[in-house]
Amino acid sequence: MPVGYAPLASFADLEKEFGKGNVSEIFDGRSFQKCAEIDETPGDRVFLVKHFNRETKSEANIAEMDKLGYRPATHLEAYAFAKANPELQRQFWIVALGSFAVDGDGQYVAMLRSDSVRRFLGNGWFVYGWYSARRFLFVRK
After folding, report:
1. Which is nearest to 71 in space by CA: 111, 98, 40?
2. Residue 17: which domain range?
3. Is 40 helix (H, G, I), strand (E, B) or coil?
């Protein structure tokens, strides 16, 4: 799937796409820091939506998938994935652990989620433990 790595659209434009109130404030133009070394050269990427089927922690997920040749997806990759696969985020919540924005004392990562009718470009706290129902977005190295 192609990823361009251009900066995200403005917060107002993201709300036009996802709906008013459906975009987390971390996408208000603030900068994101990468959680791993990530090549952002535009091009095709191979994505994997991983279900660990157990409660997990962010750093453990990254380490486990690194051994399998995958790295965590960034917020930009999650957005590209959401645009190309809107129905997947209607099926389950998908977390992208590859980059985070700081809000107060927290580091927040992108989370694609939905309810019965709306899609959200949301967030989750990087250091929280994750419930077994969550899926995670990874990219082939």
Report:
1. 98
2. 2-140
3. coil
Per residue in 13-44, pLDDT (tens digit) is 999 999 999 999 999 999 999 987 899 999 99
Return the number of other C-beta atoms located less than 10 Å from residue 58's C-beta: 22
pLDDT > 90? residue 117 = no
Label residues 13-52 b or e (16+ Cβ within 10 Å = b): ebbeebeeebbbebbeeeebeebeebeeeeeeeebebbee
Q: Identify the CATH number of the domain in which residue 25 sits.
A: 3.10.100
* Number of domains the chain contains: 1
d(CA 129, CA 126): 8
Digit-coded pLDDT (tens) for 58-87? 999 999 999 999 999 999 999 999 999 998
Strand ranges, E, within 6-140: 33-34, 43-44, 47-51, 56-57, 70-72, 94-103, 106-114, 119-125, 129-130, 135-140
